Write the structure tokens for this entry.
Amino acid sequence: MRVLLVEDDALLADALRIALSEAAHQVDVVADGELADQALRDVNYDLMVLDIGLPKMNGRDVLRRLRQRHAGTPVLVLSALERIEDRVDLLNLGADDFLQKPFHLGELDARVKALLRRAHRHANNELELGRIKLDIDGRRCFVDQVAMDLTAREFAVVELLLLRAGRVVTRSQILDLLYGWEDSQATNTVEVLIYRLRKKLDFSGWHLKTIRGMGYLLEAYRG
Ligand code: CA
């Protein structure tokens, strides 16, 4: 994914650029609001990570101008703002999420992933891979138009696998996804879930392959 990072603190910008690059994003970094505004006009970014206190034009104005152009680019705001009024103001301007400084890079990673997932979902309410079809809004999965019996958790994992079709989905990505479901701390949750999904997907034309030490991959059966 192509990410615009807007941050005038050079040290922080560098750390964030490295973290985002490690998550396999292509990152452009700018250090003032005018450059950010220009970059947003020139390039169709998948996500913007935006500081608020910036030279030349503040982050609030960058965001306002972006939304005035009716651009749906997801925006993650980095901010030291603690007042709820400031956050409400930014949400009203079209911010999608916040990270309060100082933050852990792991949290940045998780929030970026969540925003990108959400953006994909909004772009298209159906996902299709061969004979598998997902109705994202209805939370239903079909193989050859026959509805499959999936739990909410299983559905979420199938959705992730389809969004990342052709690429490995790591165990920690699945754990991130399941975080929040109350019994997700159980260490064998992922393995059990994958085991059940593998059986359920058995007739779909796709095999859920374990890539040792990495994660899982949806692979087409070779006929
Ligand atoms: Ca700043």
Remarks:
- The longest strand covers residues 206-211.
- Residues 8-9, 51, 53-54 surround calcium ion (CB under 6 Å).
- The chain has eight helices and twelve strands.
